[in-house]
Amino acid sequence: MRQAIRLGLGVAALAAACGVAAQDAHNLQGVSVSAAVDDPNAAPPGTASALAPSQASLSALEPQSILNRNYIQTIASPKDDYLALLELTPSAINASPNGAGFSSKSGTVRGFQDGEYDVSFDGIPFGDPGAFGHATTAFFPAPSLGEVVVDRGPGTASNLGNATFGGTVALYSAPTTDKPSGQLSTMYGSGNTWQVAGEGNTGTFGSLGTQASVNYSHLETDGLLDNAGLKQDNVLFKIKQPLGEHTTLTLVADYNKVNWNTFTAQPRKQTDRYGIDFGGLTHDPDTQGFYKYNVDDRHADFEYLQLHGDYNSWRLDNKLYTYSLRDGGPGGVDLLGNTPNQALLPHGGVPGAINHSAYRAWGDMLRAEKDLGSGWLDSTLRAGIWAEHAYQSQHEVTVDLSTMTPRTLAGTPNDQIIDTNAHSNTTQSYVEVEWRPVENLSVVPGLKHVDFDRTLDGVSNFLPVGGSGHFSTNLGAVAVNYRFSPNLAGYAQWAEGFQAPKVTILQGDGSQVEPQTTENYQAGLVWKTPETVADIDVYYIDFGNLVNSVEEPIGPGGSLISVYFNQGGVIYKGIEAELTRVLGHSGFSFTANGSINSAYSKTTGLQIANAPSSTADVGFIYDRGQFYGSFLTKYVGARYTATGETSGANYNPNARLPAYNYTNLNLGYRFLPDLRLQLSLNNLFDHRSVIQGNGAASNPTFYYLSGRNYTLQATYTF
């Protein structure tokens, strides 16, 4: 029994160390209760773990929320991107003014912005190598995912990535299956939205034990904002091939194509005139906002080849991977209506620009672990190394949009706005030990070494840019998990975080700034039975070396250039909790999660931008017989669009955004064991609150919560 409990406690760390998908890791758990309640994707129907929108694991080493396959398929919208999926978890907010899945604009966790937390796919971190951000519509829509885990912390030393200090949004593909299976679905909804999706599993075929799966989705919409259409295709292929008794080779390839109209937040004078569903796009070809002039075309791919071996006390895992994003299209210079065409093209035409950018990353992630000792020395040693090279280019030229030919705009020296090339190299290595000195206890100390190099050359905003930077550090972490009983576990963590400066530093005056750092302290409890899943945690994060910038002229009357510097830091602290409770045999379950969050600048003592003061999600889930559904309300507390709200001469009434809430209703019916129909009503009460803004003291711009909208989906499983 002791060994079984130890195995259960180590599953989360094993998944991180060996790159095993969460579903596969759960299957390794040895505690008897874990099979019933701790694996959300394997939990029996009707249990709290199977029904909960989000929950933690009994083997957690830091605060986390697991979003299982049931949540993705029956509660979330089928058109969601991954930021829309996680917005119902504690401390998370996301702005989707065009509708969930149609271009998320601001996904934050605890106030950490996109680019300050990692996103990974099957254990591989990915993102824009320049700013560490993510193009959410270009990678892994909801139908392609089997599970999402939101880890709200830097993890142990074996957690790799360029922005782990703000946490990790871990995306997982669905596993292949032993038996043939599949699913087909079609959806229609508001905004002339429609989607077809399907997945198929071959099961185990052939004498070699091969398993393969394919997932495809096609989405089209006119958008919930005026003229803000989107088209998306995504295909994901996986093949898993055993090589003998102890080794497995897995190939995964994903391709995504998106074409969408690029809207923008609007000032009140525009929304007063055209309504809050106006995003700057029109049907008039003589305006810069003509929707056909504002188009972004994206092509993304992600591939990896994994070799995994399990040799009794030794386990080895290697992932060789590449991913890329090509992004380009035209856009008007000013979609806010402040700059007339003649001001920039006095001899006629429609001023705009065509932008082309691309990046590709190549990397390899090697991990190894070995079981050592016995008794009070019982432990597992883990070590690994991650190396990645990324190349990024950007080219932007001003044009007359009516002819799509290059034109020099008034007040500019030429038509070449940006022409840059950047290279980056990341190497991270780690060693950690999971020590199990007594029954039910795991202690995981570790050390990670980080090296990051970046170079840049070219022209940006008509000025030459260039330079290089090298950043290196050692990061420590200690995490503890104790299983008080088969149903109750506690954990505590101390960990250091690190992020190298973004490429914009080299686009400024070349200022040397120190990397941003964090020191994290977190602790929590997890309780799980077939009827109840619950967790609670507290956190304190000391964020140092916050990078900021000011615009300064080059010489008397010269052009403005960004000057970067380290400015104090931020103290993040708060409490988070989740609960799902099955209400007897009624078919109903009560679910709630929430957070009280603080993110204050050390320098000013004011709340930082886009950090909510609190979040909450509360409602009911029903699943009995042929009927199922959910009624969930999300609440987001007040935020600021700049660093806090000052008084007196510096008071800015536009800096504070009000609290808001929205309610989503899902109603489903199973006509046959294999056929179901589902109606989803999002923002049921049609709240049109401000959800994001730029906080400008004059003529500020805002995004608004998208209006009431629906989707109707039919799904056939075979």
Topology:
Blueprint: H1 2-9, H2 11-18, H3 22-26, H4 32-37, H5 48-51, E1 64-67, H6 69-74, H7 82-86, E2 92-93, E3 108-109, E4 118-121, E5 124-126, E6 145-151, E7 168-173, E8 181-189, E9 193-201, E10 211-221, E11 230-243, E12 247-261, E13 266-267, H8 268-274, E14 295-311, E15 314-332, H9 341-344, E16 351-372, E17 379-400, E18 405-406, E19 416-435, E20 441-460, E21 463-485, E22 488-499, H10 504-507, E23 516-528, E24 532-544, E25 547-553, E26 560-566, E27 569-582, E28 588-601, E29 614-624, E30 627-636, E31 639-640, E32 656-657, E33 660-672, E34 675-682, E35 690-693, E36 701-704, E37 709-717
Parallel strand pairs: 4-7
Antiparallel strand pairs: 1-6, 2-3, 4-5, 6-7, 8-9, 8-37, 9-10, 10-11, 11-12, 12-14, 13-36, 14-15, 15-16, 16-17, 17-18, 17-19, 19-20, 20-21, 21-22, 22-23, 23-24, 24-27, 25-26, 27-28, 28-29, 29-30, 30-33, 31-32, 33-34, 34-37, 35-36
